Amino acid sequence: MPSNDVRILAQAAVPTAAVGAVAAVVSGVVAGGKGAIGAGVATLVVIVFMGLGLYILQRTAKSLPHLFQAMGLMLYATQILLLFVFLAAFKNTTLFHPKAFAFTLVAGTLTWIAAQTRAHMKSKILYVEPDKTGHSS
To answer: How far apart are CA 137 and CA 127, in angstroms?
Structure first.
């Protein structure tokens, strides 16, 4: 993964992990140990889903640049759908507090999207690849 991609990944994952840590503390105070576990699981789910999505999107941009925008829209729609499926699957679980899980999942997803958008806007990505041979036309 090029350094620019790693930088964007880190700039999205770190704030998401911080929001997840705060959510785990708050959920632990409000709902006990199961609340903290739910918030922790939700944070992990968001980081894994969104991180894999970013990785797939970056690979698509390099290999099939003409499909980048369509792939991005499809990817985000798929991620949101999978997060809803994940929420529905664990709606009545006794492994952790489902409301703490759900609220953290939403907060983590929104944080990731905002942080990734900010990181992408601040990065200096070339729109045109420079000539690699060193010759000018």
So the answer is: 18
Q: How far apart are CA 115 and CA 33, in angstroms?
A: 28
What is the C-alpha separation between 117 and 76, in angstroms, rounded? 13
pTM of the model: 0.78
Q: Give the C-alpha separation, 11 to 120, whole Å.
A: 9
3-state helix, strand, coil in the chain (%, to 5): 80, 0, 20
CA neighbor of 81 nearest in space, from 73, 103, 41, 35: 73
For every residue of 56-91, DSSP letters joined together read: HHHHHHHH-GGGHHHHHHHHHHHHHHHHHHHHHHTT
Q: Which two tokens stand for residue 106?
A: 């939403």
> What DSSP character marks residue 97?
-
pLDDT confidence tier of residue 58, bands split at 50, 70 and 90:
confident
